[in-house]
Sequence to fold (333 residues):
Amino acid sequence: MEFLHDYGLFLAKTVTMVIALLIVIGAVAAATVRSRGRPRERLELRRLNERYRDMAERIENELTPQRASWRLKRRRRAARQGERKAAGDRTRLFILDFHGDLRASATESLREEISAVLTAARPGDRVLLRLESAGGLVHNYGLAASQLARLREHRIHLSVSIDRVAASGGYLMASVADHLVAAPFAIVGSIGVVAQVPNFHRVLKKHEVDFELHTAGEFKRTLTLFGENTDAARSKFREELDAVHQLFKNHIARYRSGLNVDEVATGEYWLGARARELGLVDELGTSDDFLLARIETTELIALRFRRREPMTRRLSLAVETLLLRLTGSSASN
Fold:
């Protein structure tokens, strides 16, 4: 009975994963069909001032008596004409979004959006990045952080807003900001490096299976999946992790000079309120409040670069994300 129970659980998990994969494949296929005929690459701009104004007007329309509605419409018409005249002189805030996965695949769109900002920015223009990422591969997030550094190198003020999470590689990116805002319960930090490698050497040895690995260079390969790992290899592997961690710490210290890096670079994470006390962020608040506070003085422009990825790439990324969520696995810097 215990065997049947375990087998039933295994079968249920397998069926669940297969169904989930089929759903993902179907969703990607449907998205591919819908995107046919559209340009492969396009840059989208949306003026958020108008969006917020339309929301307010709809509420007022519902609450204003019908007899007074015509006077309200006249005032709005005059106000819009004044806004259009003033819009050309107001500071512009370009709003970008980054939703990070294991491979920081959104970096390709981010680099195009930043290039667009750099070519169009006027003196005084600023950028807000709404960031959400729990981290991932070191070199991928390092490149994403380097894209943000381009803004600072061109003296364009960069704010980063964390509504939910910016941990590990996500915080590597966030720390580049001139001004860093986090929601009170956002997850911030995790300044550390982790790597895990299973080893099947004893299983192979038990079944008398030989595994050969040939390298040129003493440390071309340190830990392996199937070979016998040595103390020297483990020591070298830890040395490499420590080197990456030190680069991470140096990066944080460069952009957040007032932060005690050794105190916070323990791999721990904190909620936004505590992160503010430690100096990991500069202000508590949400991205929504950040934008609403500037709606009267700033032209808010949401910028999106869209690229139609091949179906195979979208499918592989979707499957990878799904498997990570189902297994609870993670890999991060």
